[in-house]
């Protein structure tokens, strides 16, 4: 009997079959599937944040299906197949973990490593640099421009910090945020929309840099705040509804009182 992964691969082959496959699946391309990949990745993160392991299993399956989809399209075009993907990541992980697999040999697993976590992180970056030939390319050449903006900002800041372009501690980062806020206020006084947008970007970049210095993911932190806000606002809606009123019937002061009540309730 074939393994579950083999069944999944065969299922994808059937969906893409020229004669009998699904019309929707057959017309998809790498670019048309890409937005779904991002969506599935975020749904994985959401399940993790909620510690919903039943849904996490399902969401990981959806994300795996995206990989199978890309692999099928690539195999049809004779670029690579799923086995090539798996083989490539195994080889990469062996290269990047010499402290676990000496000489890149998986058969030598089990020998103790004396490296610290910091040394391992430094080793990882050195190996990545060697693989990508970063000595000949720009430091930021491998940061995808399509990456979500906050995530990309942190990636950029992390990259340049590796070559010494970074503040030594968090204090100057707070100063930079204050400086950018002042510049944003000045831009607002000019009533120049493009300048306001530029300065708003600078504020967000500085705040994301603060998150990096604090070893906090700005995406994860903001997502948690979004969840908290939704929870509290849902409570406001229920409180307003209990008064047989609509949200638009309430003053801002009244809504704010309900908000504070939701906070006191631990929401």
From TrEMBL:
Pfam families: MazG (PF03819). It is an enzyme of class 3 (hydrolase). Residues 28-101, 177-232 form the NTP pyrophosphohydrolase MazG-like domain. Gene3D superfamilies: MazG-like. One of its GO terms (molecular function) is nucleoside triphosphate diphosphatase activity. Keywords: Hydrolase. InterPro entries: MazG-like_dom (IPR004518), NTP-PPase_MazG-like_C (IPR048011), NTP-PPase_MazG-like_N (IPR048015), NTP_PyrPHydrolase_MazG (IPR011551). It comes from the Bacteria. Its EC number is 3.6.1.9. This is Nucleoside triphosphate pyrophosphohydrolase. It comes from Marinomonas primoryensis. The gene is mazG.
């Amino acid at each position: 009997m074939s393994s579950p992964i083999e069944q999944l691969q065969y299922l994808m082959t059937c969906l893409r079959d020229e004669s009998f496959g699904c019309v929707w699946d057959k017309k998809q391309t790498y670019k048309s599937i890409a937005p779904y990949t991002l969506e599935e990745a975020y749904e994985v993160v959401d399940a993790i944040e909620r510690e919903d392991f039943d849904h996490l299993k399902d969401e990981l399956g959806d994300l795996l299906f995206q990989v199978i989809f890309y692999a099928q399209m690539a195999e049809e075009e004779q670029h690579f197949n799923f086995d090539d993907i798996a083989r490539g990541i195994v080889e990469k992980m062996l290269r990047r973990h010499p402290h676990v697999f000496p000489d890149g040999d998986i058969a030598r697993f089990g020998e103790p490593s004396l490296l610290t976590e910091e040394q391992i992180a430094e080793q990882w970056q050195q190996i990545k640099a060697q693989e990508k030939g970063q000595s000949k390319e720009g430091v930021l050449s491998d940061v995808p421009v399509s990456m979500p903006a906050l995530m990309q900002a942190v990636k950029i800041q992390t990259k340049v910090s590796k070559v010494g372009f970074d503040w030594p501690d968090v204090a100057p980062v707070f100063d930079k945020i204050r400086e950018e806020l002042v510049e944003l206020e000045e831009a607002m006084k000019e009533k120049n929309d493009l300048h306001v947008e530029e300065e708003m970007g600078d504020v967000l970049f500085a705040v994301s840099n603060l998150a990096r210095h604090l070893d906090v993911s700005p995406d994860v932190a903001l997502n948690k705040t979004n969840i908290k806000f939704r929870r509290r606002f849902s409570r406001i809606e229920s409180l307003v509804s209990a008064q047989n009123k609509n949200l638009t019937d309430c003053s801002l002061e009244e809504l704010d009182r309900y908000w504070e009540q939701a906070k006191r309730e631990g929401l």
